Amino acid sequence: MFELLLIIYLLPVLIIGMLLLKLVFWLLRFAIRLAVWLIKKTFIFIWKLIILVFAIIIGREIMPRNQPDK
User: Where are the transmembrane segments (predicted)?
Assistant: First the structure.
């Protein structure tokens, strides 16, 4: 009788525990995917910013603003 009551009471606890474990794994997977996406976007943004800075520097050297009138 004790074993039957133990199974009856532990079964919902085990089901809830398994669902919580699935939720934790899903949240971990989601957090890792979000972190990878953010790192990827950050590197792309930094790369574009570096290219923009170099383009501005090269553009200023090629075409200076204060040209003397001829």
Answer: 6-32, 44-63
